[in-house]
Specification:
Layout: E1 6-9, E2 12-15, H1 23-38, H2 42-59, H3 62-67, H4 70-78, H5 84-87
Antiparallel strand pairs: 1-2
């Protein structure tokens, strides 16, 4: 796994080195875990990959496609809000499907 990447698989976090992981990265990943749970995990990964493929065709750039996946949009939008998860509505990622380009 490349340095600086954190992968969330079924609510467990995988990274090469944890020195860069802080409370905000963990919150970002907890948002993904909430998304995975409400979609019963496997459908989350299917939808994630499907949307990434659609975004790749739309933006023709791997990084831009990644940042514009609705699941990532929600996680990046609220990752620094440590009070977000207790108040998060189910399927909140749906609100991020049609938002504008969020290239980082």
């Amino acid at each position: 796994m490349p340095e600086g990447i954190c992968l969330n698989l079924f609510g467990t976090y995988w990274t090469r080195s944890a020195h860069w992981i802080d409370k905000y990265v963990i919150n970002h990943e907890k948002i993904h875990t909430a998304q995975q749970r409400e979609l019963l995990f496997v459908p989350f990964y299917i939808l994630y990959l499907f949307e990434w493929a659609v975004r790749l065709l739309q933006y023709r750039n791997f990084k831009e496609a990644y940042y514009n996946i609705s699941f990532e949009r929600e996680a990046y939008a609220y990752g620094h809000n440590l009070n977000y998860l207790p108040h998060r509505r189910h399927y909140a990622w749906l609100r991020h499907l049609r938002k504008g380009n969020t290239t980082r």
